[in-house]
TrEMBL record:
Compositionally skewed regions (Basic and acidic residues) per UniProt: 152-164
Name of the protein in question: Cytochrome c-type biogenesis protein
Coiled-coil residue windows: none
Keyword set includes Membrane: yes
Keywords: Cytochrome c-type biogenesis, Heme, Iron, Membrane, Metal-binding, Signal, Transmembrane, Transmembrane helix
Organism: Acetobacter cibinongensis
Main location: membrane
Residue ranges of the region described as Disordered: 142-164
Tagged with keyword Transmembrane helix: yes
Family that this chain belongs to: Belongs to the CcmH/CycL/Ccl2/NrfF family.
InterPro entries (UniProt xref): C-type_cytochrome_biogenesis (IPR051263), CcmH/CycL/Ccl2/NrfF_N (IPR005616), CcmH/CycL/NrfF/Ccl2_sf (IPR038297)
Protein task: Required for the biogenesis of c-type cytochromes. Possible subunit of a heme lyase.
Membrane topology: Single-pass membrane protein
GO cellular component: plasma membrane
């Protein structure tokens, strides 16, 4: 008679383990790829992480190299840490990366003519579209209208001409 509670318990254990693994899966994503990547000096490591969080992973493109687990991101993290360990400033490390990979590597590119044009294009396109629509509407409104209906004299004359 006591088989019923143990049977239920045996059915709940796999469900509990599955739920626990689903809850713990995100923590595995946040794990460091390789602890040997980290610099021994905590201040230098914090600087390297701050610089890495500003650099785009060239594989993932929407993640920083600190958040990505791609092989190229790992290599870029190593390069950043090497430059920080040499004693270079944050600006020097960022300039080296931009010189090597272009402004695309920055998650927040600096304000320039190109970025202003990029951000301003939707507003410019909307303005041009509205102006074209306005002028097209005005042209249609001022275009000649349909001729007025024929008068009785004109109808009689037309009937006479068509009979001949």
């Amino acid at each position: 008679m006591n088989c019923l509670p143990s049977f239920r318990l045996r059915r709940l254990i796999p469900a509990f383990l599955l739920g626990l693994s689903v809850l713990l899966a995100p923590a595995l994503v946040l794990a460091v790829d390789d602890p040997s990547e980290m610099l021994p000096d905590a201040k230098q490591e914090a600087r390297a992480e701050a610089i890495g969080s500003q650099l785009r992973c060239l594989v993932c493109q929407n993640e920083s190299i600190e958040d990505s687990s791609a092989g190229l991101a790992r290599d870029l993290r190593r390069v950043v840490r090497e430059h920080v360990a040499k004693g270079e400033t944050d600006r020097q490390v960022m300039d080296w990366m931009v010189a090597r990979y272009g402004n695309f590597i920055r998650l927040s590119p600096p304000l320039s003519g190109g970025t202003l044009l990029l951000w301003g294009m939707p507003a410019l396109a909307l303005s041009i579209g509205l102006a074209l629509a306005f002028f097209a509407y005005r042209r249609r409104a001022t275009s000649p209208k349909a001729p007025p209906p024929l008068s009785d004299e004109e109808k009689a004359r037309l009937a006479k001409l068509t009979k001949e």
